[in-house]
Each structure stands twice: as C-alpha cells, then as structure tokens.
Amino acid sequence: MPITEILQKNADFYPNDVSLIEINPQMENQSRMTWREYSLIESNPNEAYRKEITWSEFNKRANRFANFLLTRGIKKGDKVAILLMNCIEWLPVYFGILKTGALAVPLNYRYAADEIKYCLELADADAIIFGPEFTGRVEQICHKVKRTKLWLYSGEDCPTFAESYDSLVSYCSSKSPQIKLTDDDDAAIYFSSGTTGFPKAIIHKHQSLVHAAMTEQDHHSQTKDDVFLCIPPLYHTGAKMHWFGSFLVGGKAVILKGIKPEWILKAVSEEKCSIVWLLVPWAQDILDAIERGDLKLEDYEISQWRLMHIGAQPVPPSLIKRWKQVFPNHQYDTNYGLSESIGPGCVHLGVENEHKVGAIGKAGFGWQTKIVDENGEEVGRGDVGELAVKGPGVMTAYYKDEDATNEVLKDGWLHTGDMATEDEDGFIFLVDRKKDVIISGGENLYPVQIEDYLRKYDKISDVAVIGLPDPRLGEIAAAIIQIKDGMSATEEEINDFCLDLPRYKRPRKIIFADVPRNPTGKIEKPKLRQIYCGDSVVAQQNEIK
Fold this sequence. Notes:
By secondary structure, this protein is an alpha/beta fold. Among the domains are: 4-220, 3-Layer(aba) Sandwich (Rossmann fold), CATH 3.40.50.12780; 451-544, ANL, C-terminal domain (GMP Synthetase, Chain A, domain 3, 2-Layer Sandwich).
C-alpha cells in the first residue's frame, strides 16, 4: 500500500475531523482560523496564531498541488524539493508530490545557498517549492542549477525569478489525480544530517514510509483520540515518521512553531496533546524552567499527556530520572534510527522497559539487529562492535553513489556506523559513532560514555567530547562544556568531579563554550573539530560566568 492511500482513507472516514493545527506563539494576539477561514483568507495567512484544517481539506490541498505539478510536466520518477519552515502547508505539499508519483525531496532549512544548490543537483530536482525565509539564498543559485525548471514560491510578494504557489494551485482540481502507485515505487529522497560531512541523498520507497507508520503505531499505541505535538523540523525523518503513527489512525497533530518551554506546555495544555516527542535540549530546558520557578505546572492542563519520548541522539539517564521526578505519570520511550532506516523505530526501548533507561532498546517492530566486528562477524555479548539493522524500512540506496551504498548495505543489512554493545538481557547500548571514537595511548575512548558522566554535574547544561591531536598519546579527550545560565564553573571543579572516572577516561582538556547542535539535536562534532583541532586550540577560559 502506498503511503498516499492512508491520507485518502482518513479523508473518506473522517472528512470533517481536524487533521492538522498550526500554532505560531509569536502571533499569540492575532486571530485563530478554521480550515474554511484559512482557505478563503486573502490577507497574509502567516499572521494567524492558530490555524487548522480537516482531513478532507488536507487531502484536497494535496490533490490540487499534485494536479498542478502534472500540468507542468512533473511525472512519476521526477523529483520535487521542499524548502519550507514548519507550517500547516508542509504536509499537504509533501503528499501532493507523492500523489504524482514523483519523489519528495525535503531540504534542511539551515542550508546555505551552496548547500541548497548541491542538494538540488545531487537529487536531480526538477522543481522546488520554497518559502519567504529562503528567497535570498534561492536567488543566489536559481540561475546556476540547470535541471530545476520550476521554482515555486509560497508566501506574499513572490520574487520575479519564481512563480506563486498560492495563486496557481488554488485553481486546480481537488480530485485525486489517480496515478497508479505501488509499495515498490520510490517515494522520497532524504538527506543525511551531514554530521560527518556533506549530506548523502537517501532513497526510500513507499514501503519504507508505510512501515515507519506501522512501527510507530505498534510501539506507542496511538489511537484516533491521541493528539501528537510536532516540534522538530518536518524536513527530517524523525518528526514526520513519529507523526506517521498518528496519521495511520487518523489522529490529530499540532505543529508548534517554536521551542520555548512555556510555548510547549501551553500547546500541550490548550490543544490537549497526549504525545510529545522531544529532543534532549528541549527536555532539559523544560526541567530547568520548572526548577527555576519560571514555569508552574499548576498553570497548565497536562493530565492527558501520557507519553514523552526522545530520539535523534543518546539520552542521558540522569535526564530521564529528573523527568520522572517531575512527571511521574508519563510513559517514557527512546527511539533509535537513521535517515537510512527511515528515521526512528528500528530500535526502541519500549514504554515497559523504563528500568533499562540508558539503553536504546531492542529491535523494533519488523526489524532485526546484530552487532558485528570489522569482518562482519557478530561479537559476543558485552563486547563493542558496530550496530547493523535489517528490515522493511532500510533505504534502497544512496542516490548516484554506488560506492557509499556498498559500504553500508551488505546482504540487506544496514551498517549504521554506531558502536554499540548488548547486555545479558539483549538490550543494546550505544557507545559512540564509529568515526567519533578517540584512540588515546592505544585505548579506545567512547565520547558518549564521558558525556553521560559529565551531564550528571548539576551546573552543566550541555557537553560534547572530541579528540584533540596529541604528540605523545595520538589523541586526548577534550570536553566542551556549556554551563547553565546564571551559574559559573572552573576547570578545577570539573576535574574534581571526574575523579570517579577511570583515569584513562578523564578529559585531558576542559573548554568552556557553547555546544552546537543541528536542528535534530545532534551535536555538530565536525564543527567542533574544525574549531579546536587546528594548529592551536582556541584559548579557553579558566572561569565562565
């Protein structure tokens, strides 16, 4: 079954039920609009605090865009890029592309102009739809990209080099274009997060997308009555594939345009959200705001909030311990995945396994796992090796990169590049990225283990550990430490705190600085290495306030 059939089913079964809500907290004093008011509005639709559309309108909008693309010669197998901030139109655009048989190509909204050009060319994009936030970047490259012929702009004041999506699509038929699709048809190209270099283009079939929906719903038991709060960027597999679990059962989703703790709790309270997927920094920010007294839980209606889950990065056990103290009735789950495995779910902890917090879990619904050595042989329990996964959500290939594909896909197994170990109960623990392992004096140091330890210190907001060149040991572990707002710390007290670590695991260098993360919450270690691994390390502060 292609993923588009789920949208049609929801429109048939629940035509007048709300499907999507957009909350823009920065426009709190502005209007709230129903789908009918939103569809008829002639002024700037971005000025509303709250918008909503039904399943019927969602499907019609997708059909209109599909029919428009078909009139412009977009056909099955073509590629259409999406460069939009999270908004209520994002998902209808995505499904409109899929309904033509073309591949949707979501782009990271942080890409610079040259990265946009690189990805459009790598994916052989025939068209792109972009928002006003990207006009300057797109204008720099639109005349340089030879294949991309259709440049669509969503918003007011359409630039001269593009055509207005809003004006053109609204006149198209809202009936299904009836393009025949199968499970085996290519559906989307996602780009790797680029934390290890320039992004690769990852091809997924409709089968992968549908399996992601089934996996998510199996893991978290979404029902029609659940309300999913979507905060992470929709261009990434994580946010969308978690939403797919609600999508599968016709559940409502709230797209929140902001990450402030008070905005998150307000959205949960006002929209009666029951499922929230967070990144580690956002969960920390919520807890810190509550502990400071900036937020008071009694001011919000959160009794319906049943599940908090986290993915996209290793989760410090200390964070979940704090969370459960503040929210004792929440179910908790962590999800592991890669864009190459259609996002989260190939491994997950399971809400019934909170006693194993710290593990990423076991193989998810329909998935297999193994941990292997450099020769591809399975290692013994307790030994460190590379995690490999296999299942219906594994990518088809890296587009136009056979060598890179063969490097990670072997006999149907996706070699993740993540080092892991399995305990006596079969639970998998991440140790670190294969490329992030630090070899110091012949010893393998796994930065995640050191980071987890340092996060227990109550003054530390965030931390990243990288290897720095050392003439004697080859590499040493350096800890880049971000201190909580309003607090101060010294190198001496951090070193004292680390005395309980084995000597070889203790950071040899302490650097007080901000820890950069990408939009999906992953630490940007290549950026840190670029900053600190040159001929000389940036002079560190002995004290930060």
